[in-house]
Amino acid sequence: MTDMSSFDVIVIGGGHAGCEAAAATSVMGLETLLVTINLDYIGQMSCNPAVGGIGKGHLTREIDALGGLQGRIADRAAIQSRMLNKAKGPAVWAPRSQADRELYRLEMQRELRRIPRLHFYQGMVDELLLENGKAKGVRMDDGNEFGARSLVLATGTFLNGLIHIGRTTRPAGRAGDPPSERLAEHMAAIGFERGRFKTGTPPRIDGRSVDFTRFKPQESDPEPVGFSHWERPAPLPRVRCWLGYTRARTHEIVHTHEGDSPLFSGQIQARGPRYCPSIEDKVIKFPHNPRHQVFLEPEGLQTSEMYVNGLSTSMPIPVQLRMLHSVEGLEAARMTKPGYAIEYDYYPPHQIDLSLATRAVPNLFFAGQINGTTGYEEAACQGLMAGINAALLLKGEPPLVLSRAESYIGLLIDDLVTRGTDEPYRIFTSRSEYRLSLRQDNADLRLAAHGFRVGLLARDLYDRAQRRRERADEARAYARETALSPELVNPMLEAHESSALDQPARLYGLFKRPEIPWQSWMELLTTYDNNMSIVPDFVDGLQQVWLESKYEGYLSREEQRRAEVARMESVALPGEIEYAEIGTLSLEGREKLDRVRPASLGQAARIPGLRVSDLSALVIELARRRSA
Ligand code: FAD
To answer: Considering the chain, what percentage of its residues have pLDDT values greater than 90?
Structure first.
C-alpha cells in the first residue's frame, strides 16, 4: 500500500515533459506522484495539434525507441500522417502527423493510468521543500505537503505566465489555465537564475465558415509510417489539411496596426522562437515577401474547429478578425478562439548538467520548456531523460547521458547545457554533425539497448530491435555478395534511364544509383528471390542498406569524427575542479568553464568561444594532476 504522503519521485507538471518523466520513473519501479494544476488537462497540446516534422519527428522516434510515450500516443491519435522531405535524401525524411487534440490528451491519460506505481494529485505546487541542499518534497496551494526523494520540475510556460492580446494582458499559464506565480517567486528566492521568453499561437476558426475551394488540399500519405517502432494502431479516418496564402491586404492590415502589436509596441520585451514567428514578425521583417503560407489544420474528428497555422498573432481581436478575413477563402471565417502571445520565466540551462539534474540541488531535475526550449517533442525528450535519470539516481546507478553522436536527444541536451540559448531552442537536423547516421529510420537500432538496460523498454520490444539489427547485418552481407545479371536488371535500369550493365554487378553497388527508387528494387528483388516476401524484417533491413549505400563515403567520415570525439569525451574533467585557481587559463576561459562545468574535455571543446589555448591549458592541468 502506497503511503500517500511520501513518494520516491514527484513530477510537477502534466505536460509533454511531465508525462514522459512520470511514466519513466514509475515504469522503472519507483512510486511516483504526478501533480498538476488540472488532471483533465494532462497531455494537453497547448498550441497546434501536430507532432513531428523535420528534426522533431526524429526526436519522437528516439523517444519511442527508448520506451517513451509520445510516438505511440501520436500514432493512436493521428488523423493525418505524412513523411516530409521525401523529395530530398533519406537522412532528412521526417514523419509528421496531425493529431485529434482531444484524443491525444485522453490517450495519454489512459496510458498513464495503466501504470501501477503512478499516482496523481490535482493542485498547484507553491514551494519545493528543501533540506541540507536537497529536495525532499513539495508544498501545495491547498496546504497539503508531499515528500519525495527526488523531484522533476516540468512546468512549461506557466511560471509567471502573462498572456498578451493587443494592449490587454492577463496572467495565465496558457489560455484557460492559471499562471504559476508563487512557485516562480519561490524558485527565484532559493537562488535559481531566470530569464524571460515568449511564444505565441494563432486564432482558431470554425471550419464550416471556410471556402475550401480557395485552398489546396494536402492528403495523408496512403501508407503512413507513423512514429512507433512497436505498435501499429488501427488507423482513424484521415483528414485533409489545406494550404492557402496571405494577400497584400493582410500585410497592409499588419502595417497599419504595427503599433497595436505588443511585439512592436514594446509591451513584450522577451525573445520568441525565431522559427515560429508571428505574422507581424514575418510581414514587418520580410517586407519584400508578397505572401506567406497559411495552413488550415483540423483540430479533431469530432470538432469543426481549425488551427490557422502561419497566422500566429497577438494583435487586438478586431485586427485578428480583419487579418483572417483578408485571406482568400477566409472572407467569412468565424473565429472561435483568438490568437495570443505569452511571456514566461525559464531557467538558463547552464544551471543543469547533462543528466538534467540542477547543479544547485542534485536530486531536483528540470525538464521541458523551463530549460529554454520550445515544442512538444523537445519537451517530451527532456522529460523522458529527466525521469530516467531521477530513477537511476535513486537506484544508485550512473546517469544515462546520450551522446551527440548517437541521438538528437543527446545533441539537444548538450547544446542546452554547453552552449546555452538566448532564444527558445528548437531542434533542426542541421544542428547535428552526424545527421546522415542519425536518421528517423534507425532510432531503434541506435537507442533501444539503452531503453532496455535502464528498465524502460520491455524485453520483447528490445528483442525485436535486436532482430531488426541482425536482419540489417544479414541484408548488408546479402547486398555485398549478390551479383545481379544484366538480363535480370537491365529492363528495370532502362525504365529509369539508368545505364545498362554488360556484366553481372553487385547489388550494393547498384543500390548507389540515385535514379532508382526503393520501390523498383523491391519489385525486382521480390521476383528474383521469393524468400524475401516471407521475411519482412529482411526486406526492411535491405532498405536500411539501400539508404546507407547512398552515403557510404560521408558515413565513414562521420564514423571517423565519432571516434575522434569519443577520445576527447573519454577524458573526464573532475567535478570538483576549481577553474578560478588554474592560473594558465584566461580569465574568460575560467568564467566559461565555471559556468558550464563540462563533464569531459570533449564537452569543454564545444563551449562557444573557449580558446584553443584554454583547452591546451586544461590538458596540461589534467596531466599535472595525474602525475601529482
Ligand atoms: P507544458 O505543456 O506547458 O505543461 C506544463 C504543465 O505544468 C501543465 O500541465 C501545468 O498544469 C503544470 N504546472 C505548471 N505550474 C504548475 C505548478 N505550480 N504546480 C503543478 N503543476 C503545474 N511550440 C512549438 O513548437 N511551436 C509553437 O509555435 C508553439 N506555440 C505555443 C504557443 C503557446 C501559446 C503556448 C502556450 C505554447 C506553444 N508552444 C509551441 C510550446 C509547446 O506548447 C510547449 O513547448 C510544450 O507544451 C512544453 O511542454 P512542457 O511539458 O514543458 O510544458
So the answer is: 77
Name the one residue in this structure whose C-alpha cell is 552515403.
Answer: 551
Helix/strand/coil percent split, the chain, to 5: 45, 20, 40
Please give the pLDDT value at position 17.
98
Q: Which three cell numbers stand for residue 411?
A: 545533441
Nearest-CA residue for atom 45 of ligand 1: 375
Residue 1 has pLDDT above 50, yes or no: no
CA 28 distance to own-chain centroid? 22
CA 406 to chain centre: 15
Specify the ligand 1 atom closest to the Cα of 16.
Answer: 51
Residue 118, C-alpha cell as written in the block:
503512478
Q: Is the CB of 197 under 6 A from ligand 1?
A: no
Q: Is 173 touching ligand 1 by the criterion CB < 6 Å?
A: yes
Report whether pLDDT(395) > 90. Answer: yes
Q: What's the CA-to-centroid distance between 19 and ligand 1, angstroms?
A: 12
Nearest CA owner, ligand 1 atom 24: 375
pLDDT tens per residue, range 526-538: 888 877 655 777 8
For residue 200 and ligand 1, the question of a CB distance below 6 A is answered with: yes
Closest atom of ligand 1 to CA, residue 41: 9
Model pLDDT for residues 538-587, shown as the tens digit of each residue: 888 888 899 888 888 888 888 888 888 888 888 999 888 999 999 999 99
Q: Does the C-beta of 124 come closer than 6 Å to ligand 1?
A: yes
Distance CA 515, CA 504 (A): 19
Positive/negative CA dihedral, 45, 49, 55, 59: positive
Tell whether ligand 1 has an atom less than 6 A from the beta carbon of residue 104: no
CA distances from 496 to 91, 97, 132, 520, 567 (A): 23, 32, 71, 9, 45
Q: Kindly write down the DSSP assignment for every residue of 360-401, as one continuous string.
A: SSTTEEE-GGGGTB-SHHHHHHHHHHHHHHHHHHHTT-----
Question: Between the CA atoms of 251, 253, 256 and 258, what dihedral angle is there, to the nearest 10 degrees?
Answer: -70
All three cell numbers of 85, joined, read: 522531405
Separation of CA 49 and ligand 1 centre (Å): 13
